[in-house]
Amino acid sequence: MNKIVTIGVYGFNEESFFAALQRAGVDTLCDIRRRRGVRGSEYAFANRARLEARLATLGIRYVHRLDLAPSNELRQGQYAADAAEHVSKRQREALSPAFIEGYQRECLAAFDSHQFTANLGEAARIVAFLCVETAPAACHRSLIAARLALDLGLDIEHLLPGGYA
Description:
alpha/beta, Cobalt-precorrin-4 Transmethylase, domain 1, six-stranded mixed sheet, 6 strands, 40% helix
């Protein structure tokens, strides 16, 4: 792996989402969602079957890593934190400290960055981590990307609607 990319679904349309992946040179998309569907017809392109089919036509490999998805308990805790802050999931700009600590304990404590890249294989040069939130800091994809960047000395590029972050 040479580079880490992160991307959410919200804020993109189908054309801009796939164009962003192609501009970034992504060859492997790692879906780290627990539920591989998104509500709303405008985001139907990100539902598992359609996503996998479109990625295949673009020559981008699809990998689902359920082990990197937060538990329902962690997600519910984040929703409670959002409610306390009076923000919706789509408006969230950062994860709660409790979510971050829980995700690190549940998903990253036993995570081996070197084994992860070995499992992806040598063909995985530019790997995108996919979830739904717009802001990388509001999503667990930023946590896994930061861990890989730290462990492997890689750069992270966050793809955002309307351009790069």
